[in-house]
Amino acid sequence: MFCPFCRHPDSRVVDSRTSDDGTSIRRRRQCPNCGRRFSTTETASLNVVKRNGVTEPFSRDKIVSGVRKACQGRPVTDGDLAVLAQRVEETVRSSGSSQIDANDIGLAILAPLRELDEVAYLRFASVYQAFDSLEDFEDAITQLRIDHHGAGGAGAAAPAGAGA
After folding, report:
1. What span, in angstroms and rounded, lies between the C-alpha atoms of 139 and 150?
2. Which intervals hold domain ATP-cone (predicted)?
3. How does pLDDT run across 27-67, given as a tens digit for each residue?
4. CA–CA separation, 48 vs 66, rounded Å?
5. Model-level pTM?
6. 47 and 57 Cβ atoms separated by less than 8 Å
7. pLDDT tens digits for 59-106?
8. Which pairs count as long-range contacts for 96-105, CB under 8 Å and 24+ apart, including other chains?
């Protein structure tokens, strides 16, 4: 790391701290040549490979803007979208890869969006998964209903036993 004051090619780390969101490290450094101190911020780069092969840096803002369209008119706050984007970033970073396909990011969005708002989930999934018929929507809605009934399965079993 070059000293920004005297351009000496080395520096000594005096202190390191992780950022609040855990995505970067702030390091306090000191130059052994001039003795001045300076700070650096280090982040692990994460690049997105788009369908056309172009690579660009990962952006939470792009996640938020894409999901915001699906959430129009729904009771979803900007804070909810920020948390969703953070969860998606954590998911894709946990893969350990420095490059991730745009398709994988879309898949990582689906689960937290479904938990946040099922209507927004259906809207996003319909575009992302290219629903081309009413049957595609019906299948997605049926799956949501199955998952809801699966979570409350104990209540569904009681009436069957009551008739015996």
Report:
1. 16
2. 46-136
3. 999 999 999 999 998 887 889 999 899 999 999 999 999 99
4. 15
5. 0.65
6. yes
7. 999 999 999 999 999 999 999 999 999 999 989 988 888 899 998 999
8. 98/44, 98/45, 98/46, 98/47, 99/46, 99/47, 99/48, 99/49, 99/55, 100/46, 100/47, 100/48, 100/49, 100/58, 101/48, 101/49, 102/48, 102/49, 102/50, 102/51, 103/51, 105/48, 105/58, 105/63
